[in-house]
Design a protein that fits this description.
- By secondary structure, the chain is mainly alpha-helical.
- The protein is built from eight helices and four strands; from the N terminus they run ββααααβααααβ.
- The chain folds into two domains: about 140 residues; about 150 residues, no CATH class.
- It starts with a strand and ends with a strand.
- InterPro entries: Marvel, MYADM-like.
């Protein structure tokens, strides 16, 4: 199916329903009664209940607990801002592109809540003794899962479809950019201990790969959110194609070098988890170095697949310069 892209707007040659029924009415309380408005109210409620339950009993400790608490508070705050903007009809005064911002945020929020729904119970809840704090933590995890589903549903509802004119971030390549930057952030969290890669040029190269690809993808997202895609010295479509190809090549080196130098005894790695004395005991709020190395290897593979998909989808688009 032929597709044309003009700057950050895509149009297609066939028509299809968006799945939302009638358009959301903005600048009126009736906006809350539309399907998308009701979905955002569910997001607001579930994130509010999640952080309220945890805050009520102080059931968060350490970096992982802080991450989960930040996730729920951040998602609640931004969702509230989006509802206020739409209720008051302030989209034209919003500093970012309203075609791109809501779906970009919804995709990030879905990933944030998914990570909190996994990290919080595995690194905190399972170590709590039975009682009121544990019950509140389990309930908060359940509401975090509900929020994740609600945000993912918004992404599915508002992504680009045939017959619609929408921003680049609503297309598959745009959503993949969100996934790529999010996975890179998780990688950075796992390699926050410099001893995992210092004094080993091959591993330092891998860290450089993660940083370069993250920065380029983040620039692409920010250019779309700010409607600044025409500020590049080259056409934005060319930038996207080059970005996807370069990232695939760079990650292809990282997917080889990181496991080789982390798990091969010949190259100074630790092939077995039992060799890492830090992994011998289970600790709450703590991830041992061998597990960090393994997590980074898995996340590197995930991001490589994301960049490959990004490259394939970008190659299928027919770009038209204005």
């Amino acid at each position: 199916m032929p597709v044309t892209v003009t700057r950050t707007t895509i149009t297609t040659t066939t028509s299809s329903s968006s799945g939302l029924g009638s358009p959301t009415i903005v600048g009126s309380p009736r906006a809350l009664t539309q399907p998308l408005g009701l979905l955002r109210l569910l997001q607001l409620l579930s994130t509010c209940v999640a952080f309220s339950l945890v805050a009520n009993v102080g059931a968060w400790t350490g970096a992982m607990g802080d991450w989960s608490m930040f996730t729920w508070c951040f998602c609640f705050s931004v969702t509230l801002i989006i509802l206020i903007v739409e209720l008051c009809g302030l989209q034209s005064r919003f500093p970012l592109s309203w075609r791109n911002f809501p779906i970009t945020y919804a995709c990030y929020a879905a990933l944030f809540c998914l990570s909190a729904s996994i990290i919080y119970p595995t690194t905190y809840v399972q170590f709590l003794s039975h009682g009121r704090s544990r019950d509140h933590a389990i309930a908060a995890t359940a509401f975090s899962c509900i929020a994740c589903v609600a945000y993912a549903t918004e992404v599915a509802w508002t992504r680009a479809r045939p017959g619609e004119i929408t921003g680049y971030m609503a297309t598959v390549p745009g959503l993949l950019k969100v996934l790529e930057t999010f996975v890179a952030c998780i990688i950075f969290a796992f390699i926050s201990n410099p001893s995992l890669y210092q004094h080993q040029p091959a591993l330092e190269w891998c860290v450089a790969v993660y940083s370069i690809c993250f920065i380029l993808a983040a620039v692409a997202i920010l250019l779309n959110l700010g409607d600044c895609t025409n500020m590049l010295p080259i056409s934005f479509p060319s930038f996207l194609s080059g970005l996807a190809l370069l990232s695939v090549l760079l990650y292809a080196t990282a997917i080889v070098l990181w496991p080789l130098y982390q798990f091969s005894e010949k190259h100074g790695g630790q092939p077995r988890r039992s060799w890492d004395v830090g992994c011998s005991n289970r600790h709450a709020y703590y991830v041992c170095n061998w597990d960090r190395r393994l997590a980074v290897a898995i996340l590197t593979a995930i991001n490589l697949l994301a960049y490959l998909a990004d490259l394939v989808y970008s190659a299928r688009l027919v770009f038209v310069r204005v």
